[in-house]
Amino acid sequence: MIYKDILSGKLKPGQKLVVAELKERYNVGASPIREALVQLSWNKYVKLEPQKGCWVASISLDELKELFESLRTISQVLLAKAIANGNENWELNVLTSFHKLSKIELKDAELEKLREWEDRYTHFHNALLEGAKSPIMYQFYQDISNQITRYRHLNNNPQVISETYAQYLEEHETMMKFTLSRDSEQATKHLNNHYSKAIDLISGYFSA
Question: What region holds the HTH gntR-type domain (predicted)?
Answer without folding.
Answer: 1-59
